[in-house]
Design a protein that fits this description.
Blueprint lengths: L2 H16 L1 H5 L6 E8 L9 H12 L5 E6 L10 E5 L2 H10 E6 L14 E4 L8 E2 L4 H10 L1
Parallel strand pairs: 1-2, 1-4, 2-3, 4-5
Antiparallel strand pairs: 5-6
Length: 146
């Protein structure tokens, strides 16, 4: 077996094991007014397109609970955003209980998404939008009507 095939098999098994907390956290209800943000898997902090989406929600005083997953807890964030250390169990709990995810990169392989959740990947692209929820119209309406 090639080294690449060994790595892929190992990574798939690791992701299956690490997905267990996401299934366990489904005992908790989804919070309709909770949005979880993350930039480049938590490595960059309060930056990029999710930052500006969060700032607009804060400016509108939207009433949403804003949670940001980050690896470096010393990064600066607005007081309206709850900063959470990006560990497997924190990620599982907050992503499983949030109605909306806003990211600028793909999620880790172990992440398991509920079907009634909206997820927007706010990438820096020309016209392209990458939604992995029911669709952009539903996402926009859900944010503005809640």
């Amino acid at each position: 077996m090639k080294e690449e095939e060994k790595y892929v098999r190992k990574r798939i098994w690791k992701s299956k094991f690490q997905s267990l907390p996401f299934y366990i956290c489904r005992i908790f209800k989804v919070k309709r007014k909770k949005i979880v943000f993350c930039c480049i898997e938590g490595t960059t902090g309060y930056t990029c397109n999710p930052k500006y989406i969060a700032e607009e929600l804060i400016r509108r005083n939207s009433g949403y609970e804003l949670v940001w997953l980050v690896n470096d807890m010393s990064r600066k964030f607005p007081s309206e955003i709850r900063v959470v250390h990006n560990t497997l169990f924190n990620r599982a709990y907050h992503l499983t209980t949030a109605k909306f995810w806003i990211d600028n990169s793909r999620k880790q392989l172990e992440v398991r998404k509920r079907t009634d959740l909206y997820s927007d990947m706010a990438c820096q692209a020309g016209i392209q939008t990458n939604l992995s929820g029911p669709g952009s119209v539903f996402f926009k309406n859900s944010i503005s009507n809640q």
